[in-house]
Amino acid sequence: MKDLARDSVASAEPVPAVWTGRATNRMQWLLAAAGAAVVALGVELAVASPWTSGIAPLLMSVIGCVAAGLLILYGTLAFVHVAVKVDSDAVEVRCGHMGLPRRRIPLSHVAGAEVAARVTPRQWGGWGYRWRPEKGTAVVVRRGEGIVVTLGDGRDFTVTVDDAEAAVLAIRDGLRRGTGTAVKA
User: Fold this and answer.
1) What's the CA gap between 56 and 45, in Å, rounded?
2) Within 10 A of 131 (CB to CB), how many other CB atoms are there?
3) What is the 3-state secondary structure (H, E, C) of 92-152?
4) pTM, 2 dp
5) Is 153 left (phi over 0), alpha (psi -120 to 50) or beta?
6) Cα distance between residue 27 and residue 135, in whole Å
7) Which is nearest to 129 in space by CA: 116, 120, 138, 121?
8) Mean pLDDT by groups of 10 residues along the chain of 185 residues
9) Is the Cβ–Cβ distance between 128 and 101 less than 8 Å?
């Protein structure tokens, strides 16, 4: 992890009152297209099925294709991008176009923040919202830089985001102003 100066004085620019950033993975759109294709296959089976072996196998095929396709669609579209917002009260992480899943971490529960120069899906077991007992929780939408927020209870929350250094400076600025009251580990 990359170490930044302890406060925002290291930066020539002032820290904004509200910092926002995001990370995007365009490759997820290919998986979303595959999910849409599976749903289309289910619809095609329902509409133009010449099956003569009965209604039960047809229903199972149609329902299976539509359900699998919708799961693939939601699972990929939910993690096409992640948006991170840091203000004077909290760090908020929203995934996908609907903003779900969402995680809001009050700065009063934050003990510190660091830049992770390289976060990879391989470290966390894939893309998406991940939990590993030895590492904590993460939202990984692409490989690259991210932030690691250390919570007051010692757990870590990692999220991939562009311009992670600015996010860490904003979090540290909020902690320095006194909004963070967590016990330092």
Assistant:
1) 13
2) 11
3) EEEECCCCCCEEEEEHHHEEEEEEEEEECHHHHCCCEEEEECCCEEEEECCCEEEEEEEEC
4) 0.75
5) alpha
6) 26
7) 138
8) 47 74 88 93 87 83 94 86 93 89 94 95 91 92 95 94 95 81 45
9) no
